[in-house]
Design goal:
The chain has about 210 residues and is α/β, with parallel strands linked by helices. It folds into two domains: about 100 residues, Rossmann fold; about 90 residues, Rossmann fold. It has eight helices and five strands. Strands 2-3-1-4-5 form a five-stranded parallel beta sheet, sandwiched between helices. The model has no long low-confidence stretch (mean pLDDT about 90).
């Protein structure tokens, strides 16, 4: 496989991003940059009081992912990233603003900062989008049993899914691979993982054959 620098996995909460990221990293011996859900100081508070903590959480994620991209580009290894800087700005922050959970002032401040940061970094060489329906998302969320996700509503997940589809349909930052995830179980079915790997390799070889 050609030596690319940055692959990112995108998708809604519960889509299976972290699982796929881990499995691809193991398969290709890539380094991994995970989304910070274990040491994030705002995540639990956010799900208990979204209005109070939405801006803090989004700024934390924005800064974290910006630093990840800088580290990826200055390093000499291929890195796979769990979620992208674009998802925060195109899905989560606008959704919180539209739901009245982030003030107009905070939202404008956030978007200005995102535009500045994103103008200074490169997009992923390949973005892998896991497209999942609500039943699949709910099943994954329930199985992993994270306490802070217990208050998440179906309406919230649907709003996010709609925004993901809108974002992906207009994604122009780089190369995109869409994986239809509803009937896949790459964690327990090696054939499904193999299918995803074949799709990724076709995309990467196609990219380098053009170059």
């Amino acid at each position: 496989m050609p030596n690319i620098k940055h692959i990112a996995v995108a998708g809604n909460i519960g889509a299976g991003k972290t699982t796929l990221t881990e499995m691809l990293a193991k398969h290709y011996n890539w380094d991994v940059h995970f989304e910070d859900t274990t040491t994030n100081p705002y995540l639990g508070d956010f799900y208990n009081d979204m209005n109070r903590w939405s801006f803090n959480l989004q700024i934390y994620f924005l800064n974290s992912r910006y630093r990840q991209i800088l580290d990826i580009r200055k390093g000499d290894k291929t890195v796979i990233q769990d979620r992208t800087i674009y998802e925060d700005a195109h899905i989560f922050a606008p959704n919180l603003h539209d739901m009245g959970l982030m003030s107009e002032r905070d939202f404008k401040n956030y978007i200005d900062l995102f535009h500045l940061m994103s103008s200074q970094v490169q997009s992923p060489d390949l973005l892998v989008y896991l497209r999942s329906g609500i039943p699949k998302l709910v099943d994954h969320i329930q199985k992993r049993g994270r306490e802070y996700e217990g208050n998440m509503s179906l309406d919230y997940l649907k709003r996010l899914n709609d925004r993901y589809e809108e974002w992906i349909s207009n994604y122009k930052e780089g190369n995109l691979l869409i994986v239809q995830n509803d009937n896949m179980d790459f964690k327990n079915n090696p054939e499904d993982l193999g299918t995803v790997i074949e799709m990724i390799e076709r995309e990467i070889h196609s990219l380098f054959s053009v170059i």
